[in-house]
Design a protein that fits this description.
By secondary structure, this protein is α/β, with parallel strands linked by helices. The protein has helices spanning 6-13, 71-83, 93-100, 106-117, 121-131, 134-158, 165-198, 212-222, 254-258, 269-278, 294-303, 326-331, 346-356, 373-394, 399-417, 423-431, and strands at 14-16, 29-36, 42-51, 62-66, 200-205, 228-231, 238-244, 247-251, 281-287, 308-313, 335-337. Helix 4 packs antiparallel against helix 5 (121-131) and helix 6 runs antiparallel to helix 7. The structure holds guanosine-5'-diphosphate. Guanosine-5'-diphosphate is lined by residues 206, 208-214, 257, 260, 266, 313-314, 316-317, 339-342.
Length: 437
């Protein structure tokens, strides 16, 4: 519970073993006792933590009841809280209050949900960096540079008789260039950021019986501890996440791959085309114990412009095609040999993926990485305004026109950190949180 009234409500439902008044209880302390109902019956044996304003997650008075868990007890205690005056929190309301009360900015608040939803170590690390305020700090620094530009411009406007204009223009241009560089760097980091957050969309394609589902099983078996099945909300597909060097590999349409009963449904040429379009990475698998067929060539044609790893499967059998095959070499320099059912060569597949996407070089410890599309879009918009401001300056347009673009840059940066953001956007952001966060 959080808010002015939370200790009053707590007092009605919690009987501490060692009774103290709320004034006597220190913040950051835990008390042992019982939750009791209106008839003084014990509901559960609990520990209650006290946080006193402003030193709490929301900056308000807060308490947390630790129960034995389980549906019945939890519901009963929740009902007691509600009956005694508490209101059910909205999704993300605690973090929203922390933001509205100024303890964290919007960037930090948004990182909370990313930490919770993180599917890989790198994603978690990036989000924690954001919670620690590293991105906020960077944005504030850029903002400060823009404010400096404004000060310089005002000098030019206030003292026109000193003919400082030319000198200041050069200075302002220089400052804007530096701001642009900073913003471009952040914008570029989104390439990696997107990969860290959404994973590498990977499709395993090949004609029926090449070994797609065997390969998928081999991968999943090795990674079973960190596989998450996420039901597709809009389509009837299952996505599966595995981790490679801290980056999630998001294998799309595994349902289609696994559907071995229905021969028609097996990923054929038409379906491959559709999936290939959606994927960042294609693992094209061929049965190396057979010559390449028309169908194989057709598949190669579909994927020729994509990032492709060619996998020659069934190397335990006599081979009819190998990595020297010119048709394969034309498509990709990444060709590996495996035996899916014997789980041989899976590691070299991972190595190739790492190499292809420079996964070893993505350093989330020291670099600021943008992972959120909202932030990326605002940065892009800010860059456009910097460009416009530079252009107006170079064309010797009046300062008040430049000032419009400068203000827009500040507006974009303010929307990122949450100072300039509308209530609708705030509500939308927090609606994605889960209850109790
Ligand atoms: P899909 O239709 O592409 O999903 O292919 P499957 O994974 O269902 O495999 C087709 C057949 O090839 C199955 O009978 C598998 O047991 C067999 N198979 C898959 N990988 C290997 C392998 O590495 N060696 C051998 N000898 N057979 C394999």
């Amino acid at each position: 519970m959080s808010g002015d009234n939370c200790f009053n409500i707590l007092e009605k439902i919690f009987k501490a073993k060692n009774e103290q008044t709320i004034e006597e209880i220190k913040g950051y302390s835990i008390k042992y006792g019982h939750i009791i109902d209106s008839n003084n019956n014990i509901v559960d044996e609990v520990l209650v933590s006290y946080f006193k304003s402003p030193k709490s997650y929301t900056t308000e008075n807060m308490c947390e009841i630790n129960t034995h868990g389980g549906i019945i007890i939890l519901r009963k205690i929740l009902e007691l809280c509600l009956k005694n005056g508490a209101e059910l929190a909205e999704p993300g309301e605690f973090t929203k209050r922390a933001f509205l009360n100024g303890r964290i900015d919007l960037l930090q608040a948004e990182s909370v949900i990313d930490i919770i939803n993180a599917k890989s170590e790198k994603e978690a690390k990036t989000s924690i960096n954001q919670l620690e305020g590293n991105l906020s700090k960077k944005i504030r620094q850029i903002k400060q540079k823009i404010l400096d530009v404004m000060v310089n411009m005002e000098v030019a406007i206030d003292y026109p008789e000193y003919d400082v204009e030319d000198a200041t223009n050069v200075q302002i241009l220089d400052m804007l260039n530096r701001v642009e560089n900073d913003l471009l760097k952040l914008e570029q980091s989104f390439d990696n950021g997107k990969m860290i957050k959404e994973g590498i969309k990977t499709a395993i394609i090949g004609k029926p019986n090449a070994g797609k589902s065997s390969l998928l099983n081999a991968i999943l078996k090795e990674e079973r501890a960190i596989v998450t099945d996420i039901e597709g909300t809009t389509r009837d597909t299952i996505e599966e996440f595995i981790n490679i060097n801290g980056i999630p590999l998001n294998i799309i349409d595994t349902a289609g791959i696994r559907n071995t009963e229905n021969e028609v449904e097996k990923i054929g040429v038409i379906k491959s085309k559709k999936i290939a379009n959606e994927a960042d990475l294609i693992i094209a698998i061929f049965d190396s114990s057979k010559e390449l067929t028309e169908e194989d060539i057709e598949i190669l044609n579909i994927i020729k412009d994509k990032k492709v790893i060619i996998v020659l499967n069934k190397i335990d059998l006599e081979t009819k095609i190998d990595e020297k095959n010119i048709k394969l070499k034309e498509i990709s320099k990444y060709i590996i040999k495996i035996s899916a059912i014997n789980e041989i060569g899976i590691d070299s597949l991972y190595d190739k993926i790492s190499e292809m996407f420079n996964l070893n070089e993505i350093n989330v410890d020291n670099e600021i990485v943008i992972t959120n599309l909202r932030h990326k879009n605002l940065i892009t918009k800010a860059i456009e305004n910097v460009k416009q401001a530079k252009e107006t300056l170079e064309n010797n347009m009046p300062s008040d026109i430049i000032a419009i673009f400068i203000k827009d840059i500040l507006q974009c940066l303010g929307e990122i950190t949450g100072e300039e953001v509308t209530e609708n956007i705030i509500n939308e952001i927090f609606s994605k949180f889960c209850l109790g966060k």
